[in-house]
Amino acid sequence: MSTIEISDLRDQPHFLETVADRVWRAWWQEQGESLETVAGLFAENLTTREVLPACLVAHRGDDFVGTASLIASDLEERPALAPWVAAVWIEPEFRRLRHGAAIVAAAAKLAFSRGFAQAYLCAESDKRAFYAGLGWRHLEEDVGPYALDIFELRAPAG
Question: Is Oxidoreductase there in the keyword field (predicted)?
C-alpha cells in the first residue's frame, strides 16, 4: 500500500476545488446543484472554527487521493443522529488500497476527538460489507428516497 497523508482541508486549501468537483460529480450534479454552490459549502470549512463541519483530504504530496467530511446531518429522515461521516470519495486509481478505510477511520476519530460518543454514515447497500468490515454497525436499510443503509460507530471505551 502506498503511503498517504490525511489532512484537514484548512491545512491543504489547494485541494478545495478538487474536493468540491469530486463531491459535486458524485452526488450533487445529478440533483441540479451548481459546482459553485458545492465549492461554497467546502469553502466554509476553511474559515470555521466550529466543531462541525470539517473536511479531510487524503493525499500523497500534492496528489489528491480522496476526501471525507464530518457534518451535522446527512439524512433529513434522521435529524436526531449526529455527526455524520459523509462525502467519502477515493480517486479510482487509489481504490482497493485501503485508503477509503483510512479516511473513514480518520473522520470517525475526528468526531470522537470533538466529544461525540458515536458517528453515523449512510451508504448504498452494496457498501454494507465494506463498512461492516471497518467495525461500523448496520442500523437500518432502505432509508429515504435513495434507499440508503445507516451505520453507526461508537467511540472506543476508555
Answer: no
| Strands, sheet with 137-143, edge to edge from the N-terminal-most edge strand | 5-8, 54-60, 63-71, 84-90, 118-123, 148-154, 137-143
Sorting pLDDT into bands at 50, 70 and 90, what band is 72?
very high
Cell 432502505 appears where?
142
| Overall domain count for the chain | 1
Could you tell me the CATH number of the domain that includes residue 31?
Answer: 3.40.630.30
Residue 155 DSSP code: P
Question: Average pLDDT, stretch 14-42?
Answer: 96
pLDDT level of residue 34 (50, 70, 90 thresholds)? very high
Alpha carbon 86 to its chain's center: 3
pLDDT at 2 over 70: no
Residue 31 lies in domain: 5-154
Does the structure show a pLDDT above 90 at 109? yes
Sequence-separated (6 or more) residues with CB below 8 Å from residue 10:
45, 46
d(Cα 50, Cα 106) in Å, to the nearest integer? 18
